[in-house]
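Memo subject: From amino acid sequence to discrete backbone structure tokens
Keywords: amino acid chain, backbone geometry, structure tokens, three-dimensional fold.
Body of memo: The sequence and its backbone structure tokens, given next.
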Amino acid sequence: MTNKKYNVVDLFSGAGGLSRGFMDAGFNVVLGIDNDDSSLKTFRENHGHADSMKLDLFDHGNINKISEYLNGKNIDVDVLVGGPPCQGFSLAGKREEFDKRNVLYLAMVKVAQILKPRVVVLENVPGMLTLYNGEGAKRVTEDFENIGYKVERPRILYAPEFGVPQIRKRVFFVMTLKNSIKKNFNYPEPDLEASEYITAKDAIGDLPSLEGCSDYSLHQTWEYINKPSSIYQEIMRKKSEQIFNHIPTNHTQQTIDLIKLVPEGKNYKALPQEILDNRVFKYNEALTRYHSLKPSRTIDTGHRTHFHYKWNRIPTVRENARLQSFPDDFIFYGNKQEQYRQVGNAVPPLLGKAVATKIKELLDSEKI
């Protein structure tokens, strides 16, 4: 691959997991757009010289502000990326076909129509391919084809196969501008087999246990008191001298006593029958304790259903970030709830990097 830096704009950027993946693959991330202040601060602080814009993309009139900004700085966009809010298609949502959030992807279509990036990457939940007879995927394909893009067949990528220590599936749509890109895009192939997956212990086993810690202040930092015990930990720690976002949660004693009863890799169903007879658990994954020798379950935004494989508490923001493949030098801003939400909503950077690397190969191979 060449050393050319291609410019990337990220719509619905959130904290910028997808952008971080592109940045790590050698792209120049120039702008992130979102409607959440804490996410935008996190984005700005973690993507080099990238700027950010707070815009409501339900209002397509705001799209002109993006092009005005880029034109004012004389920036040509090579790649447009984005993960439009997917609650209507998500397994965690109500699966409402006409949820207005399902049409936020149209903002990506409008931006692509104006900016004419050579490649567009749209990321979403796998349910987009199947729910309502795949109507969402059909709409995406037709709308991008109508503005001059070739739409590659969408591909579901499984995060553990790309070095992410978490069970997570995401679907990627890759669109290439017909009059600019002649070759076909090839999705990345898995790097790891099941026996090689990075485990929860591989990912977070070196972080301080927080046992006996009664300081719940938001801005405290920790030293690396344990040596890395895996290559993954070495990579995560490489550019960081301290541990940020590693704040304990003040659980009630009742919660701690319940967690103690759940064996590693099990959930509330493993509780004694007398407890199950007297309590109602609303979620299938309630009181899920991670297994140390397997990837974690999918990191969500609520953060109160999963627990550390060893310690009787929920994972910290930093532990969730590690399980999402965010390196330790990626610092999250906002209050604790906002930080958890940013991590849970993000595309794992290593998954983004896998896609970005193939896009860079494609762009490098095209004669401009």
